[in-house]
Specification:
The protein is α+β, with helices and mostly antiparallel strands. The protein has helices at 4-11, 25-36, 55-68, 97-114, 126-129, 134-140, and strands spanning 47-52, 84-91, 118-122, 147-156. It contains six helices and four strands, in the order H-H-E-H-E-H-E-H-H-E. Strands 1-2-4-3 form a four-stranded antiparallel beta sheet. Bound molecules: flavin mononucleotide (FMN). Flavin mononucleotide binds next to strand 3.
């Protein structure tokens, strides 16, 4: 079976190289509108989106993540040079909040792809928001009171793509 939604899902990739060119405001508005159309438990919408386009802010988070994560596999720039990164913070008290934010971030990934943009969902920035300077970063990114980092997504014009990920066997059963 085939249709535009299934094709977008099949063709989306995590993009880890971007042109320097910024997204248009129209693209950002369309992506955020889609994010906010995502479903959430009890329609609680326990998310908040911080759109970061200041390279200095991204550099600070990257440096802090590097201080707090001791791994040779860490990329030099955890944002891969993306011109826009959306940080999704979540109501820490919400029973399904992190799941709802995960759904919203996948909506962003698909919306970006549908506009010809690339994206990569990012868990690594978490290291800045859980480390010794977490209050500073929560303030800098204007997370609402009681909200904490859930996930981020880098978005930009892709310069490279990749193969689809192989699908693990035995992850479906019919009973
Ligand atoms: C919750 C979550 C966190 C992720 N964090 C990172 C990350 O910090 N850095 C990164 O390069 N990719 C990250 N990824 C992307 C995955 O590595 C990627 O989705 C996976 O390898 C499958 O590749 P595909 O997205 O191209 O299908 C993350 C994905 C998810 C869903």
């Amino acid at each position: 079976m085939n249709n535009p939604v299934l094709t977008a899902i099949a063709d989306r990739r995590s993009i880890r190289a971007y042109k320097g060119e910024q997204l248009t405001q129209e693209q950002i508005d369309a992506i955020l509108k889609a994010a906010r159309e995502s479903p959430s438990a009890h329609n609680s919408q326990p998310w908040h989106f911080t759109v970061v386009q200041k390279a200095d802010h991204l550099k600070e988070v990257n440096e802090e993540a590097h201080k707090n994560i001791d791994s040779p596999d860490l990329p030099p720039d955890i944002f891969y040079g993306a011109p826009t990164v959306v940080f999704v913070s979540c109501d820490a008290e919400s029973r399904w909040g992190r799941l709802d934010c995960g759904i919203a971030v996948q909506t962003i990934a698909l919306a970006a792809h549908s506009l010809g943009l690339g994206s990569v969902i990012l868990g690594l920035p978490d290291a800045a928001f859980t480390g010794p300077r977490k209050e500073y970063f929560n303030r800098l990114f204007k997370f609402p009171a009681g909200y904490s980092f859930a996930v981020a997504i880098a978005i930009g014009i892709p310069v490279a793509s990749k193969e689809a990920h192989p699908q693990e066997p035995d992850r479906i059963v019919f009973v």
